Amino acid sequence: MTRRVLFASRLAAAAFSAVWIAASPAAAQQCGGDFRQFLADLKQEAISRGLSAQAADRTLSGARVDQTVLARDRAQGIFKMPFLEFSKRVISGYRMKNGAANMQKYAAIFQRTEQEYGVPAPVITAFWALETDFGAVQGDFNTVNALATLAHDCRRPELFRPQLIAAIEMVQRGDLDPQRTTGAWAGEIGMVQMLPEDIIKFGRDGDGDGHVRLKESAADAILSAGAFIQHLGWRRGEPWLQEVTAPQNLNWAETGLGNAKTGAQWAALGVQPRWGQISSNLPASLILPQGRKGPAFLAYPNFNVYLEWNQSFVYTTTAAYFATRLAGAPVYNEGNPEPGLSDAQMKQLQTKLANMGYDVGKIDGILGSGTRAAVRDAQQRLGMPADAWPTPALLNRL
């Protein structure tokens, strides 16, 4: 699995692109139009930013529009599978076994990474596994073509144009081969799927060869991931996710990422850890991926880093839970969640909620943060347990 979905989700949070974008302090660049002229103008911007004409030519001379990239961009979607189904599918015995083996194999670089950036090995290892199966599946799209295609396209040029400039800088440094470097359709590169700008800023030489090569070097990938995760806000020495049990008389309206209490306050309400100890002084949100009858977790401040990495709630909860498993936590208690909605039913629910005045975003069948918040409020209004899990019963009541 590559970072296609996570990058798509981060892009979705940005404003819709305008046709004109700032290309330099003194000029403006139009997206679209003749592709070769577009590349010529981009070369001049790269030179104005201090990069060499030779590096720009090496990078851009063979670039072409990739129609498959455009098709992927327009067809992208965030996971619609519920948490239990998705987590069971991606947290396999193979990934658990190989995760443990890689943490042992690269123990020295993991130790260095935690010392320098505060990010523990299980957190990086879980991303490494979910993104590329420890480097086995890194994507086969030519990186320069993917970035040039999306920068030239007029949907989000302000997001992709800087990545193409950064790719030129990577070529100048000797860390990207324009003809041979491949990755995900949206331009992410390497074992942990980082974008060129992030590689420029947070790429680290973990193996001491003078280069940052995230496709081939596990040491570079691990150290770079640690630097990037720290940049996203990771808090050293703190937990990220903890499975708990919750009493059935809890006020479910107080759950969800928008609500936080200290660990001690949750404990006073009867929330108990399934393993370890609740961090009494840290703020935490009680999250219920499939409602009050399914698994329950306390999400601590470090969980917000997962949401910075990928805004899909199912993906982030799975990645965070996977990291706890690699750190020694037991398999979750599945519980007995109420049946959810089909794709058609979810769209019907979103339509009803939108007609009631709720902001659920696009009617897409995805249980995103807006839909969850609307579901919780609607449940409260109807006197139903407000656990934000949409069910056929709720749909019928509406």
TrEMBL record:
One Pfam family, short name: SLT_2
Record keyword Lipid metabolism present: no
Domain Transglycosylase SLT: 35-323
Organism: Roseibium salinum
Start and end residues of each Peptidoglycan binding-like domain: 343-398
InterPro entries named among the record's database cross-references: Lysozyme-like_dom_sf, MltB-like, MltB_2, Peptidoglycan-bd-like, PGBD-like_sf, PGBDSf, SLT_2
Signal is among the record's keywords: yes
Swiss-Prot/TrEMBL keywords: Signal
PANTHER family referenced in this protein's UniProt entry, alphabetically: LYTIC MUREIN TRANSGLYCOSYLASE, MEMBRANE-BOUND LYTIC MUREIN TRANSGLYCOSYLASE B
Domain of life: Bacteria
Record's signal peptide: 1-28
Protein name, UniProt field: Lytic murein transglycosylase
